[in-house]
Amino acid sequence: MCSPLESGMNALSMRMVTRSRSRGPGAGPRAGGEDPVPLGRREAAAEGRKSHHPIKRQQKAQRLHVAYESSDSEKGEGTEPLKVPIWEPQDWQQQLVNIRTMRSKKDAPVDQLGAEHCYDPCAPPKVRRYQVLLSLMLSSQTKDQVTAGAMQRLRARGLTVDSILQTDDSTLGELIYPVGFWRNKVKYIKQTSAILQQRYGGDIPASVAELVALPGVGPKMAHLAMAVGWGIVSGIAVDTHVHRIANRLGWTKKATKSPEETRGALEEWLPRELWSEINGLLVGFGQQTCLPLHPRCPTCLNYALCPAAQGL
Ligand code: SF4
């Protein structure tokens, strides 16, 4: 009988490591006393859907965010609460609801073949974490189906740090081919596996800083490894799908040039309760609807709310 990964492979059990700022649609139950989403915002979103000038509207919205509230004992001492304006895209809540609706069948490749589906659920926890990291390393510039096939071949031989280090480079290359940049990945997998064996007892490190220091591991992989492997939401995992869609929907205050820049821009305003959901949601949306070259805008529920729709 397989046991669930002790430290949390289940996204539902993820815990947050950053400070809460606000809540969005679909977040968990509100704590007592929190304000609901203002009705005025919903009305504004509904009004916006009637408009056909989304580009003009897109960058204007701001909300007032109470960054600090004085305690009862401080009230009446003449101190005013500090109010810091936090930018947010005008229609993001409705856009998110629409994407969830479009993704409700969970039938995109990422839903069946993503990193959280590629490890052996019966392996010991640290082996599972290693397999998660390895599948993430294989997945860059590679379709989910190809990554899943390579993982299947590797797992058939018993996929552990030791087994990889005992496999010669040409055999490893044959096993992972045709993943993108497979020659480089053979080199990175060997180097990373040696470091994991020497410094981490065959496990993966539990911090983003240590993960990105490993050869062939980038920020997106590190945040996903933290989430899937350790059950910790350390940041938004931004790949090319998330980067592209965030820019098309106007979810960044200004156009961003790289996934890392997009991650920073999203984390500035997106409620942290939604951080763990965004990657899988947008990756699948990018695989099925908001395609890189020919997005299916006429069938997209966000057509009237999307600043990019008219220009594609
Ligand atoms: S309208 Fe087109 S560009 Fe905009 S989110 Fe939908 S598919 Fe993507």
From TrEMBL:
Matching CDD domains: ENDO3c
GO cellular component terms given for this protein: mitochondrion; nucleus
The keyword Lyase belongs to this UniProt entry's keyword annotation: yes
Catalysed reaction equations from the record: 2'-deoxyribonucleotide-(2'-deoxyribose 5'-phosphate)-2'-deoxyribonucleotide-DNA = a 3'-end 2'-deoxyribonucleotide-(2,3-dehydro-2,3-deoxyribose 5'-phosphate)-DNA + a 5'-end 5'-phospho-2'-deoxyribonucleoside-DNA + H(+)
Compositionally biased spans, kind Basic residues: 50-63
Region (Disordered): 15-82
Keywords of this entry: 4Fe-4S, DNA damage, DNA repair, Glycosidase, Hydrolase, Iron, Iron-sulfur, Lyase, Metal-binding, Mitochondrion, Nucleus, Transit peptide
SUPFAM superfamilies in the record: DNA-glycosylase (SSF48150)
Annotated PROSITE patterns: ENDONUCLEASE_III_2
Stored InterPro entries: DNA_glycosylase (IPR011257), Endonuclease-III-like_CS2 (IPR004036), HhH-GPD_domain (IPR003265), HhH_base_excis_C (IPR023170), HhH_motif (IPR000445), NTH1 (IPR030841)
Positions with biased composition (Basic and acidic residues): 40-49
Pfam family, one: HhH-GPD
Gene3D superfamilies: Helix-hairpin-Helix base-excision DNA repair enzymes (C-terminal), Hypothetical protein, domain 2
GO biological process, one term: nucleotide-excision repair
Annotated EC: 3.2.2.-, 4.2.99.18
GO molecular function, one term: metal ion binding
HhH-GPD domain ranges (all copies): 138-288
Subcellular location: Nucleus; Mitochondrion
Main location: nucleus
Domain of life: Eukaryota
Function per UniProt: Bifunctional DNA N-glycosylase with associated apurinic/apyrimidinic (AP) lyase function that catalyzes the first step in base excision repair (BER), the primary repair pathway for the repair of oxidative DNA damage. The DNA N-glycosylase activity releases the damaged DNA base from DNA by cleaving the N-glycosidic bond, leaving an AP site. The AP lyase activity cleaves the phosphodiester bond 3' to the AP site by a beta-elimination. Primarily recognizes and repairs oxidative base damage of pyrimidines.
Quaternary data: Interacts with YBX1. Interacts with ERCC5/XPG; the interaction stimulates NTHL1 activity and NTHL1 binding to its DNA substrate.
Protein family membership: Belongs to the Nth/MutY family.
PANTHER family: ENDONUCLEASE III-LIKE PROTEIN 1
Protein name: Endonuclease III-like protein 1
Source species: Otolemur garnettii (Small-eared galago)
Organism phylogeny: Eukaryota, Metazoa, Chordata, Craniata, Vertebrata
Encoding gene (name): NTHL1
